[in-house]
Write a structure and sequence with these properties.
heterodimer; A: 8-stranded mixed sheet; 8 strands; B: 33% helix
């Protein structure tokens, strides 16, 4: 088994979910982190995004996050990318790491991350948080279902409120981001993930958690496109 | 209650949540919280209280930053050997001018407590201190890669009634950051809407939370005196 210090992770987003995920992965001793974010720090980020301070307003998020991580762990290999995760770079980025942690804030990126991870055969820890609810699910390409097996595709833009309208409970984002990183550490350590084939939904006011089983859907276009999909299905 | 434009902009993402709102945010900004324990496993929770806008944070930890803390969230390598409480206070004060973060001092008058103590003995003692002072409190107790968070609003069954036995302090894991943030989240909700909170215990087992109402043990002294209430089980 390869030591965790020799393993790598791609974290999409450095904000409410990606921030705590990166800090937790660094503290756990992961050897190389690829972080990406194309945004700048804004005032409304400061209730939940742990890397950023008032003095960082207007700064590039990826640069600030990388600087803070280097201060914490000078031995950590960091590749910072001031760009969006998109169709042009997705496959290459995912192929270059051992696990993908998706802390992005939009459905298009979440489905792109799912498709790229499934195609590359890399595990993906998916997460989302809105208002007082967080969701986490792990996709391990193969027998378990993926995000597209569960939801088929992104919801219409008008069906989902943006963070600015709906709000986010900051500490809940921290909880979810740290849980996502803990899951990535399990996978990097060779353990079975806690959310493989099941979606965890946690509502903060009631503290109720629900687990929804996610089975592989035969007609799923992402799973069917995998080179080894036919062999796995038989 | 109202907030000025700067605070409204800063906390806009939680002002629109019914569980917080403008009134809840104002209560958070007026709150004074004593945090017991600032080990590597504790700092995520402290950080999220600061980000949420808890007005005053007093960090109660007499230890120095040790090599095991280095690399964890707020503890860079060069902080090793410095007082944890001072390192945390300095790091968090730089994040917001709307809050005050200082090392704990005995004359301070908190309105709530977050217990993130590294050992069971310290956690029980800190929780009992909070109960006797009639302060709402939340206690996190790590156990391997998970643990337990117990929320104790005023009059609810105490931490000793709700906790498990037989736990010992363990080194921080990736799961302990999540537990610490969960404890902060519980205290934020408790402070923002104190009337809505009930005593409850959340167990985090291998990444999956489960909740139950806390129940008072027969004969526990937390059931004596004014303000003691029976939990709604």
């Amino acid at each position: 088994m390869t030591a965790i210090s020799e393993r790598s992770a791609l974290v999409i987003g450095t904000g409410g979910l990606g921030g705590p995920a990166l800090l937790t992965l660094a503290a756990a001793g992961v050897g190389r982190l690829v972080l990406m974010d194309a945004d700048v720090v804004e005032t409304s980020n400061l209730n939940r995004q742990p890397f950023f301070r008032e003095a960082d307003m207007g700064a590039r998020k990826s640069a600030v996050a990388a600087e803070r991580l280097r201060a914490l762990r000078p031995d950590l290999q960091i590749e910072e990318r001031d760009e969006r995760f998109d169709a042009a770079n997705a496959a290459g980025l995912v192929r270059g790491v051992d696990v993908v942690v998706d802390g992005s804030d939009n459905f298009a990126t979440k489905f792109l991350a799912n498709d790229a991870a499934v195609a590359a055969g890399k595990p993906l820890v998916h997460g989302g948080v809105l208002r007082t609810t967080a969701q986490i699910m792990t996709v391990v390409p193969g027998p378990a279902g993926c995000l597209r097996c569960l939801f088929e595709g992104p919801p219409p833009a008008e069906a989902m409120p943006a963070n600015a309208e709906a709000g986010v409970l900051g500490a809940l984002a921290g909880f979810a981001g740290a849980l996502m990183a803990a899951e990535a550490v399990r996978l990097l350590s060779g353990e079975r993930g806690a959310y493989v084939g099941r979606l965890l939904s946690f509502e903060a006011r009631t503290a109720r958690a629900r687990l929804v089983m996610v089975r592989r859907r035969e007609a799923c276009p992402a799973c069917a496109a995998r080179p080894s999909a036919k062999a796995e299905a038989t | 209650m109202t907030l000025d434009p700067e605070r409204t902009a800063r906390y806009s993402r939680q002002l629109v949540i019914p569980a917080v709102g403008v009134d809840g945010q104002a209560r958070l900004l007026e709150a004074r919280v004593r945090v017991t324990g600032a080990s590597a496993a504790s700092v995520p929770g402290i950080l999220y209280l600061a980000l949420a806008g808890v007005g005053t944070l007093w960090i109660d930890d007499p230890e120095m930053v040790g090599p095991a803390d280095s690399g964890h969230w707020l503890y860079p390598q060069e902080s090793v050997g410095q007082p944890r409480a001072e390192v945390v206070a300095e790091a968090l004060q730089a994040r917001s001018r709307f809050i005050r973060v200082e090392p704990w001092r005995s004359e301070a008058m908190p309105t709530a407590t977050l217990v993130l103590a590294p050992s069971t003995v310290q956690a029980v003692a800190a929780a009992e201190t909070a109960r006797r002072a009639r302060l709402p409190h939340v206690v996190a107790e790590a156990d391997g890669e998970g643990g337990t968070v117990v929320t104790v609003p005023l009059g609810a069954p105490c931490f000793a009634c709700a906790r498990s036995t037989g736990r010992t302090a363990r080194p921080p894991t990736a799961g302990s950051a999540a537990l610490s943030a969960l404890a902060a989240e519980e205290l934020v909700l408790l402070l923002a809407a104190p009337g809505a909170a009930q005593g409850r215990r959340i167990d985090l087992t291998r990444g999956v939370p489960s909740v139950r109402a806390t129940a008072r043990l027969a004969g526990c002294s937390c059931g004596e005196g004014a303000g003691a209430v029976s939990p709604a089980v």
